[in-house]
Amino acid sequence: MRAGLIGLGAMGRNHARILAGLDGVEFVGAVDPAGDPHGCVPAVLGVPVLPEVADLLALGVDYAVLACPTALHEEIGLQLAAHGVCALIEKPLAHTPQAARRLVRAFEERGLVAGVGHVERFNPALQQLRARLEAGELGEVFQVVTRRQGPFPHRIADVGVVKDLATHDIDLTSWITGQPYASLSARTVSKSGREHEDMVAVVGSLTDGTMVSHLVNWLSPLKERFTAVTGERGCFVADTLTADLTFHANGAVATEWEALRAFRGVAEGDTVRYAFPKREPLVVEHERFRDAVREGTGEGSGIVTAREGLRTVEVSAAVLEAAHVAAPPRAPAEAMARVGPLETAERLEPAEPMEPAAVEPVPPLEVSTSLSPTPASGGVTAAPGRDSSAPTIAEHTA
Q1: pTM score
Q2: Nearest-angstrom CA–CA distance, 137 and 131
Q3: What burial class does residue 379 get, using C-beta atoms within 10 Å of its C-beta: 0-12 exposed, 13-18 middle, 19+ buried?
Q4: What is the Cα–Cα distance from 133 to 231, expressed in whole angstroms?
Q5: What ranges make up the beta strands (E) of the chain?
Q6: What is the DSSP string of 35-56?
Q7: Lowest mean pLDDT among 86-90, 212-216, 339-343
């Protein structure tokens, strides 16, 4: 089986390393207009570094790995599909839901395998967590909380933290629970001076009522990859930096301490950190995709299919729209200029008591629109009659 690589940036270098030693795969060429300044493809492999995708296609490949900027995924993906080449596309699948739908359609119509590089699914801690949830070890799931934060990545310039990092949490939350998102609200900020957001907080719910929350940013010196799932029997905590999975059980021992007995909620029980094999997630991802291409189908192969990647793109778009609608209005600059400095407490005269004013009741807010399933994906889009690029409401069905 012959494979190629498109893009030799930071992520592309890792893909090149895996492809060079992947059993059953011949790494025949890489594409990057800038060449290979970092020496990602060792000369001893005899793998050429090509300037154009057409040059790679001329070599004849069964599949290609796309590790180029997100804005180029649609153009290059459609080119691969048109030539009958399967593709493993780095996350997110595309920069917009519309582009993602076009990619899904192009590969599905030709019967080609297309996967998305949501590598967190292959982290051994999350693999263990999902298996234990499926076995019912936690009972009913109440809440999923994720935190994904760390220093600013200078390699990312074409998307913000929602599409680059939060898509990991969106995908893994649906995957480990087996439930899609039902609704969400969000807030974003941009403190780095760039066009895109660099911090987001999301609160939402899944279709079975499970509560979810995600805190993601590029503004923290603390690097954290935290997933906690709380249910009726306790709480699983996964650290995907160390691939550790810990279970905190609900307490089952009665206490004689009166002050604690007054609290009738959950008490602390045993804590267990599990031991299990820990393989590199990117290697497992490549092995699964290789096998899916060999078998000719992505369904049931364990890869993240293009259709699943589309769903994540749709939810991330809903996050950005919800944050845009919920952003507080900014006062005009001229109005701000007329606001003088505050008086100090010593110089202020005592205020006369005021009579309470009658307050008119505030009518409930009306939802102006909702998001309805799209025929192509079962995902979401703005309801007819509205500009789909315009903001709608602070809470979105996703």
Answers
A1: 0.79
A2: 9
A3: buried
A4: 10
A5: 2-6, 26-31, 49-50, 63-66, 86-90, 114-117, 141-149, 181-189, 199-206, 211-217, 224-231, 234-239, 244-250, 268-273, 371-372, 381-382, 396-397
A6: --TT--S-GGGT--EESSHHHH
A7: 339-343
